[in-house]
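Most newcomers find our protein records easier to grasp once they have seen one. A learned vocabulary of local backbone shapes supplies the integers on the structure line. An example says more than a description, so a record of this kind follows:
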Amino acid sequence: MEEIKIVTSDGIKIAVNYYKSGFEKVIIIAPGWFMTKDSKSFRQMSEIFSQYSDVLAMDFRGHGKSGGFYTFTSKELQDIKSVIEFAQGKYEKIYVIGFSLGAATALIAGSEDNKIDKIIAVSAPSCFEKIENKVWKKEAWIPTLQKCELKRWFSIRPSIIPKKKVRPIDIVEKIKCPTLFLAGEKDPTVCSWHTEALFRKAECEKKYELFKNCCHAEDLFIQNRDKFIQICCEWLFET
């Protein structure tokens, strides 16, 4: 694995873990808010997927080793576009797996161009304003404590300036590439109805899968790893 930096159109340096094994396809992994490419779960996930494909695991702006400040999907589209552009010309197929707000950003990117061949949206919100984020529920704070990484926590830099956001529910029908929607039955942060609503409105080739007794975003991988990897690989490589 090699860490590289990719510069966005507005001059932000995006840190990427590049797992290069010589495949003709690549998976871009886009974590959500407060998670990074170097989080334990994303490191493990990247290593597993690197057995089937090259992998570009990214830090959005304001996270980890990337520059800038996080804007909660307002400017992060430029981050993921820069990684997609890096992959263009190098790979025959470009896949994106996004988590939470990373999934929202992946959907927005998919609605604007045809460079992405397949998308997996994990715990994607229908719109930012309706995210539940019930932090007092055990389904929220227990997984948060289990994933406690102080180095990661101190690397997060959110923007305090409110900015206009694109609502995924308003653009999902524009997506042309096959899209898999995954949700956790017990998600207290982005309740599963968000992802189901996006699935129902999408007009592309699509599939929806609800993970029983699982929580939010990367928790689907942590709590039911075998099922998560199997479903993702079947969608990306066998359909």
